[in-house]
Amino acid sequence: MRKLPLLMSLPALLALFGVGYAEPAKQQVSIRFALEAGKEPVNCSHDIKGLGSHKISAKLHDARLYISAPVLIDKAGKEVPIELEQSDWQYANVALLAFADKTDNCVATTATNDSIKGVVPAGRYKGFSFVVGVPSVVKGADGKDIVLNHSNFATAPAPLDLQSMSWNWQAGRKFIKLEIEPDGGVTRQPMKPRAPKTAGEGGGDGALMTQEAKTGEAKSEGTKRNAPAPEAAKPEPVQVNADGTITVKTWMLHLGSTGCKGDALTGEIVSCASPNRIPVTFAAFDPAKQQVALDMDALLAGIDLNHDAGGATGCMSGQADPECAPIWEKAGLNLKETAIDANDAGKPAKGAAQQIFRVEAKKLPVESRN
Fold first, then answer.
1. Buried/exposed code over 262-294 (b: 16+ C-beta within 10 A; e: otherwise)
2. 169 is in which domain, residue-wise?
3. Per-residue pLDDT tens over the stretch 162-196
4. How many domains is the chain partitioned into structurally?
């Protein structure tokens, strides 16, 4: 008897023996996300109240995040990946959520996106899981590796084509970009000049050449999302105080992988000492009736938003930055290694769970302008 190829697919086998085959039924799924402070929705046209350790008010400046590997959990506890629709907001298994537009105080893209959309096999599901962050590599339909986090933004497909969501060529993407302007500004010691080799963003990983400079390629970012072309960075106004401190307008959280090695532009797979991807799992979740909320109140609890204790203004994923420690704790991650050679910096902390996302009843979308 002739042996069949071991890798022959089920449809091919059935066709070989003359048996009909029908593709498994699929069902559409749409999961909505919201940006809130406590129970209050956050948008560009209203002050956010009660943030940080002193419960101050602030204006939203930017709020975007990448999520990846979304799955529904069936009744047996099996994780079933959501096959994302491919669009300007979704590519491979990555989606960009954008809560800030170009109205009022915000500086992000004109369009916003608060949902992920895709299909799953028809069935009944009880839970939902995803990861905050962009994977380093995923497998394409042809089985080949697709570089995602450290791909060149100038040539990457949407939504990975945003210069404003990229760090230098080693640090990859900003998984979370959250920027606010607290009432009264942010007072801090002046930044000390640093040698070029330690001037990089993302925890001081070095002044690494940007993708744009390295490739010589630049393009208007997010044109299909009605975004303006990237502008040269303008220095933020700085107030010099009598005691030698300075006061700036914007407090920033830029969360991404740090301690990265390898050059994706030459074909190397980049590895990072601190991946800083946040796993989120809800054992009970109904997409038809519920949504996922990112709670800024929980994220920034305990942080003095008017006084920065050191490092970058806010948190740029630096292990020595005092403002990063409480954020990583609420994200359920280790900011630093728990022991010498533990290699667990930026990975889920043992026995901890994230505290910044929650499930709530689905609400009607809130317009940026009322």
1. ebbbeeeebebbbbbbbbbbbeebebeebbbbb
2. 27-225+248-361
3. 999 998 766 799 999 999 999 999 999 998 776 55
4. 1
